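Here is one chain, start to finish.
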Amino acid sequence: MGLSGQSLQSQDGSELLRWGARPTSTVGSRQLIGDLPDRALSLAVRRLDATLRRRQGIIEFTSDPHCILRVSVHQITAEILLKDGAIRRGEWIGEIHLWNEHILPMSHGGANMVWGAAMRRRLRRSLQRLAEFVESDPRFAHVKFFRGEAAFGPAKELHRTRCFAEGFGFEITEPRHREDWLSRLFSLGQALFLWGMVRTFNRGALRSIGRLTRPTWFQLWMSRETLLGRYGARLAEPAVAPVTSEPPC
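Its structure:
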C-alpha cells in the first residue's frame, strides 16, 4: 500500500550561531558527524516521498491523527476480473496508500501482539474514514473499486497476511510480471525504496523487512460496495469496539 508531512520542532537559529555559547563535546561532535549520512538519507527519502505524492495526486482525506491511509485516483490500464465484478480498461479506480507518519512505530524487536492489535484498530478506523469521505466527495462518485499494494514474504507470512487482508474485506490478486531486465531493475528500485521508507519512518520494522529478501508484490482490492457496506454504516461506533468478523490469523 503504499507511503503527510511531519512537522519537526526547530531550534532557535541565534543559539546555533553562538560559537562560544556552550562547551563542545568531542564525543558529541563525532556522533553528529557519524549521523550525517543517516540524516541525509532520511531527508532524501522524505523529499522523494513528497515529490511522488504530488505527482500522483495523493491526498489526505481526513485530519484524523489515527488514520493510516491516503488515497488517489487514476485510470486502470488493463482489464481486471474480481469476485465483485470486472474493471474495464480506462475506468477510474481509487489507489490506497499508507500514511507513513501515522504508522505506529515498532520496537527494535519487531511487531508484537500489542502493536498488531493497535494497527488493526487504526486500519478499521481508517477504512471508516475513507468510506465517509467517498460517500460525501463527488470526485469519487464514479470510483467503483479501490486498490492497494503490499509486499508479501515467505509462505507462512503470506498466509497470515492474506488472512489479515481478507478479514478486512480485501481481495488479493497477484499482478502479472514480465521477466525482462527492465522489470527486474524496477523490482530492485522498488525494494530499495521500500527499505529506505521503513528506515526513515519506522526503523523498528527493519528486522521484519529483512525477511523480504525477494518480496512478492500483491494487489489488495476492495469494491465501493464492500467499503460502504462494511464500514460506511459503522461510523458512529467507537474506534476501539471489538470486531468479531475478522478471522484469527
